[in-house]
Amino acid sequence: MPNEPTQNRKESATDEPPPVGGSWTTLYAAVLLNLAALVVLFYLFTRAFG
Q1: By the 8 A CB rule, do 27 and 18 touch?
Q2: How far apart are CA 15 and CA 29, in angstroms?
Q3: What is the band of 50 on the pLDDT scale with cuts at 50, 70, 90?
Q4: Does the N-terminal or the C-terminal CB of the chain have fewer CB atoms within 10 Å?
Q5: Which pTM does this prediction carry?
Q6: What are the residue boundaries of the structural domains of the chain, listed by start?
Q7: Inter-residue contact 21 to 27 (CB < 8 Å)
Q8: C-alpha separations of 49 from 19, 35, 43, 45 in Å
Q9: What angle do CA 37, 42, 47 make, to 5 degrees?
Q10: How far apart are alpha carbons 50 and 46 in whole angstroms?
Q11: Per-residue pLDDT for 39 more than 60?
């Protein structure tokens, strides 16, 4: 069957570690923290200059 995993499967790109951060969890956390910081920053700019 084509959907069954094989033992000789080559590693896909998702099996590799991320280029920075050491793990995908760390990288995702950094991206989410960056997004949260930008939201807060833009909120503060809107309050100050709006």
Answers
A1: yes
A2: 19
A3: confident
A4: N
A5: 0.64
A6: 20-49
A7: yes
A8: 38, 21, 10, 6
A9: 125
A10: 5
A11: yes
